[in-house]
């Protein structure tokens, strides 16, 4: 091959879009990812079926909105998301975020990506973006499965909001998507933490477990009244605050606070991951 | 400084890497000429793979300088690595993806590689290592030898000026080893510099033009194959019932008797500074009335040199 051919082959600037596309495709082609999304989708299905089987005997206990489910199928999504936020969603996000770098290291692919060369910063960004895409996919899996099973098993009608107002079906779908967006944003801070932990080890399971444990610890701390001063700084503090999106007019306060808090976590742990990964000796 | 001007594909100056208290690479000065097939030899644990990691910017040196294709590493990593194909410490792939999908994935990581030609290039690389039939098979179903071939295919995805192959024949059967050797030859014929490491000298001795030997983190020898083989010199092995007379004749040629065993009448002598024609030695022996039962010239094999330099046995350098 002549020098001219070589130059032609290499003239394109390095953007990283092909790597991002490849990353997302590898992530979602993996059987584990599919299994996690299916499990998440089963949560609202289980709820809906349980409510259907016991319909009529409303006990007043259980998660918020559970009572409304039998009257209006649109509430299945809300209940499903509410139930998934504390444990199931952080669990799956912890698996994906903890696997980002450590998984490549343990498979032996990290060194080949880096000598390709993927570029350490570019690889870190791509890994983070793919994790963010997974956060969205995981949240939507619950929301969409909930909407579908709710429509199949229960009547659909105008939704009565927490403020007492009533909104039409179309508007309620918009609210559902807003909630999905809220929860996706909520998980971005945890993703950044997982990414950072993943740069510190070659054992993916360790990084996953640590990330998941941190999400639990954060919620436990958030429930201790003695630690009042700490609560606004915990990344899980606004996780369940999406009920504000079910008021008329919508209260954007928790959405904004949550976004700022998550952005802070992304900055701090993104910087830590950057500092760690760009100076790390890759010996895996 | 252009690589043409220096004439070296890889050059290091006092390259050192320390892990805690252990010096994995200790003041290594490598010079790999452009266009050579360079054998990087040493027993397990002698620091070969660590050196390769330093060359490719995977790990950072404790001290010393590295130049690859005329550019400094790791500073010019982005400019250098697209021209370097490498197999480092065994193949690493996603077990749940097919062989071809793995290559697509790693190729997309190279920001300079055109996606338009990706399919063709993956196909060609797989064909070159004889894996076309298994392209669609998941890598977890591959044998070690097949993974090794896939690793080599990855190094060949785009035209490279330098190939770094760390133990490329690991896990390959004799047929596969031969194929790798002929692959290296054909790549070298195209002008690619091939830097190949191995702990098995015999596997690469036949293809290398140059070599370096590592032992416990240090470079103990470096040069062209004939230079390396030349050091130590040839020896005469003579079997005769008249050892004393024979020794006298040999000393006339400036040869020193290194070893003499009375029972079998065997006598080993090293050539002096200049190598005398063996036939002249035999004529002189016969003229002096020495009865010669056998006369052999021993040229030390490269393998013998290798063992002399690195120490015999299976002890892995700690």
Summarize the SSE layout with pairings.
The complex is a heterodimer of chains A (284) and B (318).
Chain A: H1 3-9, H2 17-29, H3 31-53, H4 66-69, H5 75-84, H6 88-107, H7 109-115, H8 120-153, E1 159-160, E2 166-167, H9 169-198, H10 204-222, H11 253-279
Antiparallel strand pairs in A: 1-2
Helix pairs in contact in A: 2-8, 3-5, 3-6, 3-8, 5-8, 6-8, 6-9, 6-10, 8-9, 9-10, 9-11
Chain B: H1 3-6, E1 8-19, E2 22-28, E3 31-33, E4 37-41, H2 48-55, E5 63-68, E6 71-73, H3 77-80, E7 84-87, H4 99-109, H5 118-128, H6 144-155, E8 162-166, H7 174-189, E9 193-198, H8 201-205, E10 210-215, E11 218-224, H9 225-230, E12 235-239, H10 243-252, E13 256-261, E14 266-270, H11 278-287, E15 294-298, H12 302-310
Helix pairs in contact in B: 4-5, 5-6
Describe what this molecule looks like in 3D.
The complex is a heterodimer of chains A (284) and B (318). Chain A has 284 residues and is an all-alpha fold. Chain A has helices at 3-9, 17-29, 31-53, 66-69, 75-84, 88-107, 109-115, 120-153, 169-198, 204-222, 253-279; strands spanning 159-160, 166-167. Chain A has a two-stranded antiparallel sheet with strand order 1-2. In chain A, a hairpin with a 5-residue loop joins strand 1 (159-160) and strand 2 (166-167). Chain A is globular. The model of chain A is unreliable at 1-13 (pLDDT under 50). By secondary structure, chain B is of the alpha/beta class. Chain B is built from 12 helices and 15 strands. Chain B has helices at 3-6, 48-55, 77-80, 99-109, 118-128, 144-155, 174-189, 201-205, 225-230, 243-252, 278-287, 302-310; strands spanning 8-19, 22-28, 31-33, 37-41, 63-68, 71-73, 84-87, 162-166, 193-198, 210-215, 218-224, 235-239, 256-261, 266-270, 294-298. In chain B, strand 1 and strand 2 form a beta hairpin. Chain B is elongated and about 80 Å long. The interface between A and B is large, with 37 and 38 residues.
């Amino acid at each position: 091959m002549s020098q001219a051919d070589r130059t032609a082959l290499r003239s394109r600037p390095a953007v990283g879009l092909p790597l991002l596309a490849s990353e997302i495709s590898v992530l979602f082609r993996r059987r584990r990812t599919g299994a996690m999304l299916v499990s998440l989708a089963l949560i609202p299905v289980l709820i809906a079926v349980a409510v259907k089987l016991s319909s009529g005997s409303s006990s007043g206990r259980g998660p918020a909105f559970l009572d409304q489910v039998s009257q209006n199928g649109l509430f299945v999504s809300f209940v499903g998301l509410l139930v998934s936020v504390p444990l199931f969603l952080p669990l799956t996000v912890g698996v994906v975020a903890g696997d980002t770098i450590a998984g490549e290291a343990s498979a032996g692919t990290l060194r080949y990506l880096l000598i390709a060369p993927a570029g350490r910063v570019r690889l870190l960004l791509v890994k983070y973006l793919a994790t963010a895409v997974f956060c969205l996919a995981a949240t939507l899996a619950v929301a969409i499965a909930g909407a579908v099973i709710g429509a199949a098993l229960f009547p659909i009608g105008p939704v009565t909001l927490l403020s007492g107002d009533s909104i039409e079906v179309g508007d309620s779908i918009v609210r559902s998507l807003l909630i999905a967006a809220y929860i996706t944003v909520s998980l971005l801070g945890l993703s950044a933490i997982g990414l950072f932990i993943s740069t510190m080890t070659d054992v993916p399971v360790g990084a996953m477990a640590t990330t998941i444990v941190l999400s639990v610890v954060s919620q436990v701390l958030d429930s201790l009244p003695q630690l009042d001063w700490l609560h606004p700084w915990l990344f899980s503090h606004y996780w369940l605050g999406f009920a504000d999106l079910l008021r008329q007019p919508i209260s954007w306060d928790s959405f904004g606070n949550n976004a700022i808090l998550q952005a802070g976590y992304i900055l701090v742990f993104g910087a830590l991951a950057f500092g760690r990964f760009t100076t790390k000796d890759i010996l895996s | 400084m252009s690589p043409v001007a220096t004439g070296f594909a890889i050059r290091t100056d006092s390259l050192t890497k320390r892990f805690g208290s252990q010096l994995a690479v200790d003041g290594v000065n490598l010079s790999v000429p452009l266009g050579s097939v360079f054998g990087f030899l040493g027993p397990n644990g002698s620091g070969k793979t660590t050196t390769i990691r330093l060359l490719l910017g995977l790990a950072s040196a404790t001290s010393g300088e590295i130049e690859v294709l005329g550019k400094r590493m790791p500073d010019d990593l982005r400019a250098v690595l697209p021209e370097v194909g490498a197999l480092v410490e065994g193949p690493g792939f996603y077990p749940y993806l097919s062989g071809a999908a793995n290559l697509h994935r790693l190729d997309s990581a190279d920001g300079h590689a055109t996606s338009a030609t990706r399919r063709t290039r993956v196909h060609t690389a797989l064909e070159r290592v004889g894996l076309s039939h298994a392209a669609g098979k998941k890598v977890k179903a591959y044998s070690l030898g097949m993974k090794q071939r896939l690793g080599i295919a990855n190094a060949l995805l785009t035209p490279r000026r330098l190939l770094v192959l760390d133990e490329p024949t690991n896990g390959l059967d004799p047929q596969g080893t031969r194929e790798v050797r002929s692959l290296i030859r054909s790549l070298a014929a195209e002008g690619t510099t091939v830097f190949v490491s191995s702990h098995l000298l015999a596997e690469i001795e036949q293809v290398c033009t140059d070599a370096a030997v590592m032992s416990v983190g240090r470079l103990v020898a470096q040069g062209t194959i004939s230079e390396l083989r030349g050091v130590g010199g040839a020896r005469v092995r003579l079997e005769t019932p008249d050892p004393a007379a024979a020794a006298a004749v040999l000393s006339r040629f400036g040869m020193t008797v290194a070893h003499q065993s009375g029972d079998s009448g065997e006598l080993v002598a090293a050539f002096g500074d200049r190598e005398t024609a063996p036939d002249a030695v035999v004529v002189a022996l016969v003229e002096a009335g020495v009865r010669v039962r056998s006369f052999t010239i021993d040229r030390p094999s490269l393998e013998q040199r290798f063992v002399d330099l690195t120490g015999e046995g299976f002890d892995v350098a700690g």
